[in-house]
Structure formats: C-alpha cells, structure tokens
Amino acid sequence: MTTRRQYGLPEGSLTLCGEIKGPKLSDVVQIIIGLLILILVYLITRYGIFLRIKGACAKTIKDLERQLAFDEKSAVELPYAKSQFLRIGLRDFRPKAVESLLQGGIVGITGEGKYFLKKRSYDLSL
User: Fold this and answer.
1) Tally of domains within the chain
2) Which 3 state secondary structure label does DSSP give 66?
3) Does residue 34 sit within a domain?
4) Pseudo-torsion of CA 29, 34, 40, 46, nearest 10°?
C-alpha cells in the first residue's frame, strides 16, 4: 500500500476516494447552512420579482398617461391586462401590475374593460 508521502501529498489533503482529512462540520451545522442559503436564495428571487412588478407598474402608468386615459370617457384598452395561458417567452409581469394598480386604486376600469388613471404620476412616488 502506498502512502501520501510517496506521492508528495501533504497530510489533510484529498485522498484518491475523495475523502477530506481535517476538521469537518457536523451534519447539523451543514443542514443549517444549507437551509440558510435556501432561504437567502428565496428572498433574493422574491425581491427580484418585486422589482420587476414595480417596473411594470411604472410602465403601465406611463402607457396610460401617453394615451391620455385620465377618466372614464378617455379610457383605453390594455392588451396586456389579461394574462395569456399559452405565452411563449419570458414571464410577463404586466397583468400582475395592472391587477395591483387596480387594487391600490391608482387605475380604474370601466364596464367595457377599459382602463384609466385615477391618480396622476406626480401624485405617486414611483
């Protein structure tokens, strides 16, 4: 049987079977570290989704301002207001943004399904 010194390997280095010699973390600590990393990744992705929806809200408000939809008489249809079931490509956050703007009272909807701004962009802090 050969030893580490024959190959010039220092003590505590990798062996041929992949075992590491030296201080090891206990299984409990490894599980805790893994769970903390998992929670961190989840929070980062949720924050990214929040930023994308916030950007979609700002674009929706600018789109309604550009079309001068400030009351029910000048309301316009938003083609992206309803989510499509069979959409190919990246995820579209605009339907979620319109929904949150409706719930927040920033955008209104008419009986025909047209949208208008209830509050102007200078009243909002976007």
Assistant:
1) 1
2) helix
3) yes
4) -150
Task: Decide if 5 is inside a domain.
Answer: no
pTM for the model? 0.66
Q: Does residue 110 belong to any structural domain of this protein? A: yes
Chain-wide mean pLDDT for the chain? 81
Question: Residue 18: what pLDDT?
Answer: 56
For the segment 87-106, the average pLDDT, to the nearest whole number, is 84
CA atoms of 95 and 79, how far apart (whole Å)? 9
Q: Is 51 domain-assigned?
A: yes
User: Above 60 in pLDDT, residue 33?
Assistant: yes
Spatial separation of the C-alpha atoms in residues 10 and 24, rounded to whole Å: 17
- What percent of the chain has a predicted confidence (pLDDT) above 70? 71
Angle at 37 between CA 31 and CA 40, to 5 degrees: 140
Radius of gyration of the chain (CA): 28
Q: What are phi and psi of 108, to 5 degrees?
A: -115, 165
Q: How many CB atoms lie within 10 A of CB 124?
A: 14
